[in-house]
Write a structure and sequence with these properties.
It contains 12 helices and no strands. By secondary structure, it is mostly helical. Helix 3 crosses helix 4. The N terminus and C terminus are likely disordered.
């Protein structure tokens, strides 16, 4: 087993966490569909996707059966890519390789575009996509805590849900208020979004915001054990974790 596989990342995964492709017609169609959906939304036709992939519409249906099935395959691919990128980049960013991560930002443009289109679609599409993101984030966040990269939480599931919803909401609102001149140019959108958001995001993640945990302690006294915490965990945190400074939130 390779080191990548041992870490839960498939062999052949790129430095951006992108799952490997075997170069088959099925994978080429799926990759073309991810890009087309990201650029044009889920109303893009099978004919357009087939043209992007350099195949016939009949071959698309042969491999996937329907456009809905193709959409589900794209969801699965994008979600695996997000999970792989988070696993790789949390380790990189905390081990002195932040510049490398930032240099590869453009490679994530399809992820940004596809995620935004999923949210804009609303309904079952958006709910299913967001829930899958939350489920995956629970896995790699627990790995980050176990590896000493991230601090533990009194309610890990609630924290993960908040972080995912906050990130997606920030991204969607930013692109809604300041859309790219070319709606299909998500590389420019990624660059503009990260230029505006990366500094405050990193600062909040690494330094925190408040200089004291008194607000959290007061809340834990009010609610008792948070949902998802083991019995007495909230009280234990209140009794044994000292107030922190801005240098160690």
């Amino acid at each position: 087993m390779s080191s990548a596989e041992a870490a839960g990342v498939p062999e052949g995964t790129s430095s951006t966490g992108r799952p490997p492709s075997d170069g088959s017609a099925r994978d080429r169609i799926r990759d073309a569909a991810v890009l087309r959906f990201a650029r044009s939304g889920f109303g893009a036709s099978v004919r357009t996707i087939a043209a992007d992939a350099g195949v016939s519409p009949a071959l698309v249906i042969h491999h996937f059966g329907s456009k809905d099935a193709l959409h589900r395959a794209c969801d699965d691919f994008v979600l695996r890519w997000i999970m792989g990128s988070k696993r790789q980049n949390m380790g990189k960013a905390t081990n002195g390789q932040l510049l490398q991560v930032m240099a590869e930002i453009d490679e994530y443009a399809p992820l940004l575009g596809y995620s935004v289109r999923s949210l804009q679609a609303g309904g079952d599409v958006a709910r299913a996509f967001v829930q899958h993101m939350i489920d995956d984030a629970q896995v790699y966040t627990r790995e980050a805590v176990a590896d000493g990269i991230a601090k533990p939480s009194v309610d890990e599931d609630a924290r993960v849900r908040y972080l995912v919803l906050s990130a997606l909401g920030t991204m969607l609102l930013s692109l809604t208020l300041d859309p790219p001149e070319d709606p299909e140019d998500f590389r420019a959108a990624v660059s503009n979004f990260m230029a505006d958001q990366y500094l405050p995001m990193i600062e909040l993640f690494t330094q925190g915001f408040l200089t004291s945990r008194r607000m959290l302690d007061d809340y834990l006294l009010y609610v008792g054990d948070p949902p998802g915490a083991s019995p007495g965990q909230g009280d234990a945190d209140h009794e044994h974790v000292p107030e922190t400074t801005s240098e160690e939130p």
